[in-house]
Amino acid sequence: MIDKIRNEVQYNQVMALIEKFIEKATEKGGFSFLSGPEQEELSHLSVLAEQYEDNVLKITPLPVTISSVVQHKIKEMNLTQAKLAVLLGLGTSKLSQILSGKREPDVMFLKAVHSKLGISGDFLLENV
Predict the structure, then answer these.
(1) Does 3 map to a domain?
(2) CA 65, 124, 94: angle at the middle one, nearest 5?
Protein backbone atom coordinates (compact mmCIF):
# COMPACT_ATOMS: atom_id res chain seq x y z
CA MET A 1 0.00 0.00 0.00
CA ILE A 2 1.29 3.46 -0.91
CA ASP A 3 2.20 5.69 2.03
CA LYS A 4 2.75 8.94 0.12
CA ILE A 5 2.32 10.32 -3.39
CA ARG A 6 5.71 11.59 -4.48
CA ASN A 7 5.12 12.78 -8.05
CA GLU A 8 2.49 13.48 -10.65
CA VAL A 9 2.77 10.01 -12.20
CA GLN A 10 1.90 8.41 -8.85
CA TYR A 11 -0.88 10.96 -8.36
CA ASN A 12 -2.41 10.02 -11.73
CA GLN A 13 -2.15 6.32 -10.87
CA VAL A 14 -3.88 6.90 -7.53
CA MET A 15 -6.60 8.94 -9.21
CA ALA A 16 -7.15 6.11 -11.73
CA LEU A 17 -7.57 3.63 -8.85
CA ILE A 18 -10.00 5.96 -7.09
CA GLU A 19 -11.99 6.28 -10.32
CA LYS A 20 -12.19 2.46 -10.62
CA PHE A 21 -13.57 2.20 -7.09
CA ILE A 22 -16.11 4.92 -7.84
CA GLU A 23 -17.20 3.17 -11.05
CA LYS A 24 -17.57 -0.14 -9.22
CA ALA A 25 -19.58 1.47 -6.43
CA THR A 26 -21.79 3.27 -8.97
CA GLU A 27 -22.49 0.04 -10.86
CA LYS A 28 -23.41 -1.80 -7.66
CA GLY A 29 -25.56 0.98 -6.21
CA GLY A 30 -23.36 2.73 -3.69
CA PHE A 31 -20.17 2.70 -1.68
CA SER A 32 -21.70 0.37 0.90
CA PHE A 33 -21.47 -2.38 -1.74
CA LEU A 34 -17.66 -2.21 -1.76
CA SER A 35 -15.97 -4.78 0.47
CA GLY A 36 -14.43 -3.62 3.74
CA PRO A 37 -10.86 -3.73 2.36
CA GLU A 38 -11.98 -1.87 -0.77
CA GLN A 39 -13.60 0.87 1.32
CA GLU A 40 -10.46 1.17 3.43
CA GLU A 41 -8.21 1.38 0.36
CA LEU A 42 -10.48 3.97 -1.26
CA SER A 43 -10.44 6.05 1.91
CA HIS A 44 -6.65 5.77 2.19
CA LEU A 45 -6.09 6.70 -1.47
CA SER A 46 -8.48 9.64 -1.16
CA VAL A 47 -6.53 11.01 1.81
CA LEU A 48 -3.23 10.63 -0.07
CA ALA A 49 -4.64 12.39 -3.14
CA GLU A 50 -6.05 15.20 -1.02
CA GLN A 51 -2.71 15.68 0.74
CA TYR A 52 -0.87 15.80 -2.60
CA GLU A 53 -3.37 18.29 -4.00
CA ASP A 54 -3.16 20.51 -0.92
CA ASN A 55 0.63 20.41 -0.51
CA VAL A 56 2.00 20.02 -4.04
CA LEU A 57 -0.67 21.02 -6.55
CA LYS A 58 -2.06 23.71 -4.24
CA ILE A 59 -5.59 22.98 -5.42
CA THR A 60 -8.05 24.99 -3.38
CA PRO A 61 -11.75 24.97 -3.99
CA LEU A 62 -13.12 28.09 -5.59
CA PRO A 63 -15.66 29.98 -3.52
CA VAL A 64 -19.13 29.46 -4.88
CA THR A 65 -20.88 32.80 -5.11
CA ILE A 66 -23.85 34.07 -7.05
CA SER A 67 -21.46 36.06 -9.21
CA SER A 68 -19.26 33.04 -9.98
CA VAL A 69 -22.27 30.90 -10.88
CA VAL A 70 -23.67 33.61 -13.17
CA GLN A 71 -20.22 34.07 -14.75
CA HIS A 72 -20.12 30.32 -15.40
CA LYS A 73 -23.57 30.48 -17.00
CA ILE A 74 -22.39 33.36 -19.23
CA LYS A 75 -19.56 31.16 -20.54
CA GLU A 76 -21.77 28.08 -20.76
CA MET A 77 -24.40 29.94 -22.79
CA ASN A 78 -21.76 31.79 -24.85
CA LEU A 79 -23.17 35.19 -23.92
CA THR A 80 -21.64 38.58 -23.34
CA GLN A 81 -22.57 40.58 -20.24
CA ALA A 82 -24.49 42.95 -22.49
CA LYS A 83 -26.54 40.10 -23.98
CA LEU A 84 -27.13 38.67 -20.53
CA ALA A 85 -28.33 42.06 -19.29
CA VAL A 86 -30.90 42.15 -22.09
CA LEU A 87 -31.96 38.56 -21.36
CA LEU A 88 -32.40 39.38 -17.67
CA GLY A 89 -34.11 42.71 -18.33
CA LEU A 90 -31.40 44.67 -16.50
CA GLY A 91 -29.16 47.56 -17.38
CA THR A 92 -25.61 46.60 -18.33
CA SER A 93 -24.08 48.81 -15.64
CA LYS A 94 -26.31 47.32 -12.94
CA LEU A 95 -25.38 43.78 -14.02
CA SER A 96 -21.70 44.68 -14.14
CA GLN A 97 -21.83 46.19 -10.65
CA ILE A 98 -23.57 43.12 -9.22
CA LEU A 99 -21.13 40.70 -10.86
CA SER A 100 -18.11 42.70 -9.69
CA GLY A 101 -19.41 42.87 -6.11
CA LYS A 102 -19.86 46.65 -6.11
CA ARG A 103 -23.62 46.29 -5.73
CA GLU A 104 -25.72 43.78 -3.83
CA PRO A 105 -28.07 41.61 -5.90
CA ASP A 106 -31.65 42.80 -5.57
CA VAL A 107 -34.90 40.83 -5.82
CA MET A 108 -35.34 41.67 -9.52
CA PHE A 109 -31.86 40.31 -10.32
CA LEU A 110 -32.39 37.17 -8.22
CA LYS A 111 -35.76 36.44 -9.84
CA ALA A 112 -34.30 36.98 -13.31
CA VAL A 113 -31.29 34.68 -12.85
CA HIS A 114 -33.56 32.05 -11.31
CA SER A 115 -36.11 32.09 -14.12
CA LYS A 116 -33.87 32.87 -17.11
CA LEU A 117 -30.70 30.98 -16.15
CA GLY A 118 -32.26 28.19 -14.10
CA ILE A 119 -30.17 28.90 -11.01
CA SER A 120 -31.67 27.26 -7.94
CA GLY A 121 -33.75 29.57 -5.76
CA ASP A 122 -32.40 27.80 -2.67
CA PHE A 123 -28.81 28.51 -3.76
CA LEU A 124 -29.66 32.16 -4.42
CA LEU A 125 -31.32 32.63 -1.03
CA GLU A 126 -28.48 30.87 0.82
CA ASN A 127 -25.85 33.06 -0.85
CA VAL A 128 -27.40 36.53 -0.68
Answers:
(1) no
(2) 75
